[in-house]
UniProtKB/TrEMBL annotation:
GO terms for cellular component: plasma membrane. It is found in: Cell membrane. Residues 1-83 form the G-protein coupled receptors family 1 profile domain. PROSITE patterns: G_PROTEIN_RECEP_F1_2. This is 5HT6R protein. It is a multi-pass membrane protein. InterPro entries: GPCR_Rhodpsn (IPR000276), GPCR_Rhodpsn_7TM (IPR017452). The gene is Htr6_0. The chain crosses the membrane at residues 26-47, 67-86. GO terms for molecular function: G protein-coupled receptor activity. Pfam families: 7tm_1 (PF00001). The lineage of its organism: Eukaryota, Metazoa, Chordata, Craniata, Vertebrata. Keywords: Cell membrane, G-protein coupled receptor, Membrane, Receptor, Transducer, Transmembrane, Transmembrane helix.
Length: 133
């Protein structure tokens, strides 16, 4: 259940829509997090267990250790694929900056507009930026 402020009572159907919308978002976030953590553990847990076994008994072949290391690296390469599949905001951000993911109607942001957007300054910074250039 989603807590609500006592000063703002919601109507019954409006409250249900609000709760359903947020519970769907929470479910989707939980699913994404579960998939990411599950893949992380499947990829890296064998590496760490083998690493400890190698330190204790020295009985792990070097080739097997290399395979487990590359399994962990493969997990790191899967993250940029998993995030856009499950997160709409991440997909939009990728579309803004990668030419292969951009729609033809969306203009590419310039470096100056990105730096201005990321700095928490007012238009005064734009004037000083023009003077520098």
């Amino acid at each position: 259940q989603v807590p609500r402020a006592p000063s703002q009572p919601l109507a019954g159907s409006e409250s249900r829509r609000f709760t359903n919308k947020h519970s769907k978002k929470a479910l989707k976030a939980s699913l994404t997090l579960g998939i990411l953590l599950g893949m992380f553990f499947v990829a890296w847990l064998p590496f760490f267990v083998t690493n400890v076994a190698q330190a204790v008994c020295g009985c792990v072949p070097a080739g097997f250790f290399d395979v487990l290391t590359w399994l962990g690296y493969c997990n790191s390469t899967m993250n940029p694929i998993i995030y856009p599949l499950f997160m709409r905001d991440f997909k939009r951000a990728m579309g803004k900056f990668l030419p292969c993911c951009r729609r033809s109607a969306e203009p590419r942001p310039s470096a100056i507009s990105l730096s201005m957007r990321n700095s928490n300054s007012a238009p005064r910074a734009a004037a000083s930026l023009k003077n520098v250039l």
